[in-house]
Design the sequence.
C-alpha cells in the first residue's frame, strides 16, 4: 500500500470526486485541471472514457518509474486511450488526463 501511495498520492490527496463514477472499469477523482482514472478492471487494448468536457489533450499512466505517456484520441463516444498490456498496479492503476 505504501508503494502505491508513493506513486499515486497525487490522485488521492486534495482531490474531489471526478466526473465519472460507477464506470465498468473504475472511478475518477479530480483536481487542478486533471482527471484521474482509477482503473480497477484493466481492459485490453483501449479504454473509452465518455462524459469529459473539455476533452483531454494528454493521458499518462502513473508508475513507480515515473509517468508513461499513453496514446489518446477523440472519438464520438469520448476519449480513447490506448493501454499497455499490463497495468502498473494489479489492484488499481491510475491514468491522469489533462
Sequence:
Amino acid at each position: 500500500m505504501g508503494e502505491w501511495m508513493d506513486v499515486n498520492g497525487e490522485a488521492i490527496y486534495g482531490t474531489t470526486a471526478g466526473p465519472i463514477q460507477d464506470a465498468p472499469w473504475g472511478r475518477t477523482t479530480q483536481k487542478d485541471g486533471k482527471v484521474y482514472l482509477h482503473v480497477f478492471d484493466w481492459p485490453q487494448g483501449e479504454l473509452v472514457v465518455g462524459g469529459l468536457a473539455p476533452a483531454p489533450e494528454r493521458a499518462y499512466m502513473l508508475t513507480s518509474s515515473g509517468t508513461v505517456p499513453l496514446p489518446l484520441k477523440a472519438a464520438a463516444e469520448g476519449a480513447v486511450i490506448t493501454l499497455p498490456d499490463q497495468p502498473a498496479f494489479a489492484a488499481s492503476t491510475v491514468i491522469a488526463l489533462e
Q: What stands out?
A: The helical segments are 2-8. The chain has a mean pLDDT of 94. DSSP finds one helix and nine strands in the chain. The domain at 2-97 is CATH 2.60.40.1180 (Immunoglobulin-like).
